[in-house]
Specification:
The chain has 835 residues and is an alpha/beta fold. The chain is built from 25 helices and eleven strands. Strand 7, helix 8 and strand 8 (293-297) form a beta-alpha-beta unit. Helix 4 (82-111) packs antiparallel against helix 24. The chain is flat, with a radius of gyration of 39 Å.
């Protein structure tokens, strides 16, 4: 389809009549787009041609036919004011500086891992939602693989810039250190595919490090878009374990990107039912009210035939708040279609060139409008409906929204860069100072400083802190069982008594995790009951003595209770010791992370020293664990070697175990008409015969032995639980918090006096410091350049001369996206930015 035929087709469908408030000549944020809305000049034919071009969006129309002359701000006498000239001058040149500055800011954040970033559009969707295809349609050319499966394993950041002189896309691959390399589309595609192949072969099949590309093109909008890996919906079952692992990796990667508050989330949904939206549900984990999320329904051309009535289309275009949140950015969703097929000369290629691809996108948009109006039996409303249909409308909206973000963030970026400049300058001075002081005394001083900071971090983590992220360093009780071991029964199965344990689902570390482990031990072991006692165990425990062959059921009960207690409780000593050692060992990497974050870590090249400190710490943990377990074993031996009845003779005695049987008020087993005293005496004689010399177990003898065993076992259990907790607190926890400092200081000083060269590789330290100095100089230069750019832009925006035309029109002087409400209560966004 040619340009003229497509334009005539759009006119016949009435598409040009729907471009209200969208008279931007081109979709790059150049000088014309800033001043077009404020211009009162131009003929009706020129305005009509602009509207047609706005609907075409990608179709190239000669700039002279579209009236590409720079609009002016007329005054009352028809001349241009000085403020308008300054405004328009900045719009032509200042905007380019603004976009370039934000692109550099994004590169700075990526290269040096800064805690800030530039505003950008983050594309989020599932694998089959058409993410990459939509991104290509927004750019106006194809460069990446699209289709089913995982085609994107690293986020791709596209800094797109409108350049009217670039009739073909000019691509620049930005590598480490903001080094740009110009590449062809084929080279760019090959680089992306090679990265995908490399990651697919690795264990971690996705990487959060972005592939950064800068693109200049005649049909590019001024946008920064980040294309993320497609979300995966893995099937359940063990056979899909690898797919489930990939799903978790992708979700973690995309979630970390969405947590950047500067990013606008472009949420793609491939559905005709707004009540069934999986991507939106995932996005709401980070943006619950969708206040910075733009919703896009893709593949509109396949949705329209599914609607049987016009009311269905009405519901889809204007979903009520019960189906779609009314707080979404822009007030209502967008609807797009992208024609399938690739650009190329092969037999399978659908489009001969990118020009052909852009024409097809424009034609698909016009056809979608036509089909919707046919289903509805009326024209689409310009503001509430037509402005939401098509790639061109989404493109214009995003460009204007990002422009608003740019202008709003300029004042806050300047002080942020000032702070980063001071921090980088201080780090550079410290590095230069270290290079000039690579002497033994200086190395020892740095080693001692690190030692004291490390000890302070251990104390902080044990006493309680929130400085380390629970999401990253905390462990739930289930995680702790996997890595540190669970309390197991005699059959090797985890004990099931966890229903009432506090904080079992919380991610803890340090002292809080230690306390939970000890509480779990009390909770689980303290509820244990003695196992069932068999008749064989009772008879075998009687044996014979060296003086007589009578029975001694008290001795039998003691023998059984002591044997069962030793067999049951001794393994828990070692399990508790291993668990607490696991918790203590985790403190080392958490401490190192906190020191690195706070700038207290030693420079690279001191790895041997750090390794020795870690070895001393782990050795100390092993020693105190062994000592605590030894003290617990001594207590267990003492309580099971000699039974002290004061530990076991609880209130109530055996009466609490054996309540009297029989009628109330009478002796057990008394019968009417018989003498109660005679009955009691007869039972006592029978009891003595069965308990003194008879080896025939009766019910009473068996019950008495079982009751004694349970009473002795409970006494040993209660003592062991209290003793173990006391001993581990005394001989494990307290030494870690109070004695380890002196042990580490003594060990470090011994190392310094005997083998300093073994822990400090001075040549390696010097080489690493030199590299750090080079990196800091590059970072400082980049921050200083950006600070100057943003300061100049901020000063230009703040001048009264630049803001004069807006004050004359009653505007605030900064870019804003005007939001109005329609009759349905939604907030459709008028495509109009006033600057």
């Amino acid at each position: 389809m040619t340009v003229s035929s497509t334009e005539n087709w759009l006119k016949s469908l009435g598409a040009s009549a729907t471009a209200n408030d969208m008279s931007t000549p081109e979709h790059g944020l150049n000088g014309d787009s800033f001043a077009a809305n404020g211009s009162a000049g131009g003929s009706r034919s020129s305005e009509r041609r602009r509207n047609v071009a706005a609907s075409l969006d990608f179709v190239e129309v000669d700039q002279q036919q579209q009236g590409r002359q720079t609009p002016t701000f007329p005054t009352e006498n028809g001349s241009r004011s000085a403020g308008a000239m300054a405004n328009n001058s900045f719009a032509r040149s200042g905007n380019e500086r603004l976009y370039e500055a934000y692109n550099e800011l994004h590169s700075l954040a990526q290269d040096f891992r800064k805690p800030f970033d530039a505003p950008a559009i983050l594309v989020v969707g599932h694998q089959t939602d058409g993410k990459s295809a939509l991104v290509e349609a927004l750019m106006g050319f194809q460069f990446n693989h699209v289709g089913g499966g995982t085609k994107t394993r690293r986020p791709i950041t596209l800094h797109m810039k409108y350049n009217s002189t670039c009739i073909e896309p000019h691509c620049f691959l930005i590598m480490e250190g903001a080094v740009e390399t110009e590449v062809t589309l084929e080279e760019l595609q090959e680089y992306i595919e090679s990265e995908n192949r490399r990651l697919e072969a690795e264990h971690d099949k996705f990487w959060a490090k972005e592939i950064v590309v800068r693109i200049e093109y005649k049909y590019c909008p001024n946008l920064t878009i980040i294309d993320t890996p497609g979300l995966i919906s893995a099937a359940p079952g063990r056979r899909n374990a690898s797919q489930q692992q990939a799903q978790r990796q992708v979700e973690a990667l995309v979630r970390s990107k969405m947590e950047q508050r500067e990013y606008i989330v472009l949420c793609l949904e491939d559905t005709a039912d707004w009540g069934n939206a999986t991507t939106r549900k995932f996005v709401m984990q980070v943006d619950p009210n969708l206040e910075r999320t733009v919703i896009v329904s893709t593949k509109l051309d396949t949705r329209i035939p599914q609607f049987a009535r016009g009311a269905d289309v009405e519901l889809f275009l204007r979903p009520p708040s019960k189906l779609l949140e009314s707080t979404i950015l822009g007030g209502s969703p967008f609807y797009t279609s992208v024609p399938s097929g690739r650009v190329g000369v092969s037999r399978d290629a659908v489009f001969r060139s990118n020009d052909h691809f852009r024409e097809a996108v424009a034609a698909r948009e016009a056809n979608d409008v036509h089909q919707l109006e046919k289903k509805l039996g009326r024209k689409l409303d310009g503001h509430a409906e037509r402005n939401r249909v098509g790639v061109s409308q989404l493109r214009r909206f995003l460009e204007q929204l990002l422009q608003q973000k740019y202008f709003e963030n300029v004042p806050s970026i300047v002080p942020l860069l000032e702070r980063e400049h001071r921090g980088a300058a201080q780090k550079l001075d410290d590095t230069v100072c270290e290079l000039s002081n690579l002497q033994e005394d200086r190395l020892k001083k740095r080693g001692r400083q690190f030692r004291e900071r490390f000890l302070a971090k251990i104390g902080t983590l044990m006493k309680g802190t929130i400085s380390a992220s629970p999401e990253r360093f905390g462990e739930t009780l289930a995680d702790e069982h996997i890595r540190g071991g669970a309390f197991l029964d005699a059959d090797g199965q985890p004990l099931p008594h966890y229903s009432n344990l506090a904080n079992k689902h919380m991610r803890l570390y340090g002292g809080a995790q230690y306390h939970r482990a000890m509480a779990e031990f009390r909770h689980v072991v303290g509820q244990m009951q003695c196992s069932d006692i068999s008749r064989e165990e009772i008879v075998n425990s009687c044996g014979v003595s060296d003086a007589h062959d009578g029975t001694d059921y008290v001795k039998s009960a003691i023998e059984i209770a002591v044997s069962k207690s030793k067999q049951l409780f001794e393994p828990y000593l070692h399990q508790l010791g291993f668990r607490l050692s696991h918790i203590a060992r985790r403190i080392l990497p958490i401490s190192m992370h906190l020191m690195m974050r706070d700038g207290e870590m030693m420079t690279s090249g001191n790895d041997l020293y750090l390794k020795r400190v870690g070895q001393i710490y782990y050795k100390f943990i092993e020693q105190v664990e062994k000592e605590a377990v030894g003290h617990c074993m001594a207590d267990l031996k003492s309580v099971t070697s000699y039974v002290t009845w004061s530990l076991h003779n609880k209130e109530g005695g055996l009466q609490s175990v054996f309540p009297a049987k029989g009628a109330p008020g009478g002796p057990p087993n008394s019968e009417p008409g018989k003498d109660p005293g005679a009955s009691t005496q007869q039972e006592l004689v029978s009891l003595l015969e069965s308990s003194l010399w008879s080896r025939r177990l009766g019910p009473v003898s068996e019950d008495i032995v079982a009751a004694l065993v349970c009473r002795i076992f409970e006494g040993i259990r209660d003592y062991v639980v209290q003793s173990m907790e006391l001993k581990f607190n005394t001989f494990f926890l307290l030494p870690l918090m109070s004695e380890f400092g002196s042990v580490l200081r003594e060990e470090v000083e011994t190392i310094f006096s005997t083998s300093l060269e073994e822990v400090f590789d001075i040549k390696l330290v010097k080489r690493n410091l030199e590299q750090a100095r080079v990196n800091l100089e590059a970072e400082l230069e980049q921050v200083q350049r950006l600070r100057g750019k943003f300061s100049e832009i901020h000063a230009t925006l703040s001048t009264p001369r630049f803001a004069a035309p807006d004050r004359e029109n009653g505007n605030a002087g900064k870019g804003s996206v005007r939001v109005t409400r329609d009759a349905s209560g939604r907030k459709p966004l008028a495509s109009n930015i006033k600057v």
